[in-house]
Structures are given as C-alpha cells and as structure tokens.
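Per your request, structure below.
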C-alpha cells in the first residue's frame, strides 16, 4: 500500500483520514483519535497532507512537518466545491484530499509558534477592547436614564465618572451609585488589560526588525506592523504585493460575464482584523496630511480630489499593503516617493 496523499478532516477529538495512491485510488478511510495521530503518521513514508485552515490546523501542520511530511492548508471555502453529495466527515476528508492535489489551489501559509503567540496577544487585546467599548456604552445608557450624559470618547468615561460618583447633587440613588462604581471598576480593569497587552505587543515590535521596517510606512504603527508581520510571516509566500492585498480583501470584487467587466466593492476576504487596522491607519494618515494643510503624495492628492474619503482610505490601505510586501520581501527601508527601476 503506497499512499501518496492524505486529506484530514480535523476535529476536537476524532479525525477522519482519507488517503489515495499515486493513481488517485482511495486506499485508506479511517478515523483517528487525537492521541493516535502522531503515532500513525510517524510510521508512514513522507507524503502530501492536506487540511482545512481551521482551529488547531497550524499546530498539526507543524507536528506533521516535523515528521517529514509536506503539509498544505487550504481555506474551507476553496474545499467546499469538492464535497460530493451529503456533507459528513468522510466526504469532507475526501474533498480535502482531492482539493490539495489541484495545481491551481491557493494555500494558507503555516504559522510558526512565535507568530501564533503574537497573534494571541492581538486577539486578546481585541477582545478586551470590545468588552471595554460595551462596558462604556452600558454605563452611558444607564446614566442617560437618570438624565446624566457623558461626552463621546473612551477617555471621557475615565474623566467624568469619578466626578459623577462624588457629586451629591445629581440625585442618583445610592443603590445605583454603588452599581455605577462597580461598573466603572470593571471598565478600569479592562482598560488596564488593554494597556498591558499593548505594552507587550510594542515590546515584541521593538525586538523585530521586520516589524520596525513595516512601521516606517505612513499610517502603519506598532500594532498594525506587528499584526502584519505575525500574520504574513514569510512575504515570499505571496508572488507580489497585489496578491497580498487580494489576500487581505482590499481589491475589488468582480461579477463579470459576457466580456463585460463589473467591479464591485472590496471583497473583504482574508483577515478582517488586519484589513481593519490598515484601513484605519490609512484614514489616520489622510487626516494627518489634511491637518498639515498639505498632501505630499501627488497620487493621494489626485485621489482625494476625485473620490470619497472612504474610497481614498481603502485605496491607500491597498497601496500600503503592496508597499509593506515589498519592504518585507526585499528587506528594505521605506523611501517616500520611491520609483521602481522598472519604470
């Protein structure tokens, strides 16, 4: 039995395995428990293994690579068309096995342990930010029921709530005042967690040459730069900057037929967190340029003159993504106004 390709449908405890030989004939269909995975594949000769890029996929990819196998991760939406008839674990594993052999298939770069650790900091920080925003909105809503308003902005919560708690003339009931103090304490704790995680991210950023190089681009700070480097990893996994921008969902979505090209809004594929950071950074760069009363980039000046500011922000984010790919791929520093020798 000479198995050349495997498709593995990952799960929490029970994995479905589908293996084919060099002629494409199915020779293995079986289930493996989590504890049996390593022991099973360590005894097999090196082969191609396909998996969907889902929970624990990067961990198993690294483990199987360590055993000498070639592992490819694929986005689930690219595997779905290969599922025949009804959906079940066996059909999914077979579809993964077939999809990984397609020459035109697009694969997801496998993340290292360090990349996942940095991204874990970003995900935790993002969760705390959402909780902090929700808590501030709850405080505002409850105070509004008693006729007390707080100005817009997270910083206004920290500035106004202590004085509201100490104000004896605002007619707040003692029971509500105690509740407000409890909610404000929770808000303050969430804020401290956000600040602490930002400090850890910036510490890693200061130790990473690639992240510092990426932060040289206008509109890209330590948070965005560290998230990009940790998400992308090896820039050479992408053929060019446009491919990275497309991977982040910053290129137009198409609905073309009959020779008529129809371009829609951006596709919004890929990592929404990183795409959001790039777009917000582009907005900040445009705002900073306008505040100075001068937009040094002639391309951006023309774009702002003919396009809506939101469209210009996305276009600048797309351009920044391409620049970032070049900086990481060629290990160069950012040079404003740089023109490629090809031009």
């Amino acid at each position: 039995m000479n198995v050349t390709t495997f498709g593995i449908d990952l799960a929490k405890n029970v994995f479905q395995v589908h293996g084919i030989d060099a002629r494409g004939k199915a020779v293995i269909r079986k289930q493996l428990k989590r504890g049996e995975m390593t022991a099973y594949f360590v005894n097999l000769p090196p082969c191609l293994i396909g998996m969907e890029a889902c929970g624990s996929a990067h961990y198993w990819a690294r483990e199987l690579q360590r055993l000498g196998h070639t592992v490819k991760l694929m986005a689930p939406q690219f595997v779905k068309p290969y599922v025949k008839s009804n959906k079940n674990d066996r059909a999914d594993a077979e579809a993964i096995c077939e999809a990984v052999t397609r020459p035109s298939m697009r694969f997801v770069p496998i993340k290292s342990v360090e990349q996942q650790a940095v991204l874990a900091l970003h995900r935790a920080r993002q969760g705390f930010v959402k909780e902090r925003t929700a808590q501030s909105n709850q405080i505002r809503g409850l105070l509004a029921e008693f006729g007390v308003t707080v100005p817009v902005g997270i910083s206004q919560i920290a500035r106004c709530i202590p004085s509201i708690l100490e104000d004896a003339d605002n007619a707040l009931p003692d029971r509500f005042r105690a509740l407000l103090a409890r909610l404000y304490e929770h808000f303050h704790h969430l804020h401290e967690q956000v600040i602490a995680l930002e400090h850890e991210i910036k510490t890693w950023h200061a130790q990473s040459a690639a992240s510092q190089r990426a932060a040289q681009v206008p509109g890209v700070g330590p948070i965005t730069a560290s998230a990009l480097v940790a998400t992308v990893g090896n820039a050479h996994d992408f053929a060019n900057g446009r491919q990275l921008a497309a991977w982040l969902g910053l290129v137009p979505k198409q609905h073309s037929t009959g020779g008529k090209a129809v371009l829609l809004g951006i596709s919004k594929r890929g990592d929404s967190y990183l795409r959001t950071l790039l777009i917000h950074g582009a907005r900040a760069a445009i705002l900073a340029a306008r505040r100075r009363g001068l937009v040094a980039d002639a391309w951006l000046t023309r774009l702002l003159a003919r396009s809506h500011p939101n469209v210009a922000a996305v276009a600048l984010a797309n351009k920044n993504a391409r620049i970032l790919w070049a900086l990481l791929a060629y290990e160069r520093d950012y040079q404003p106004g740089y023109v490629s020798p090809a031009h």
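The chain has a mean pLDDT of 90.

Regards,
D.
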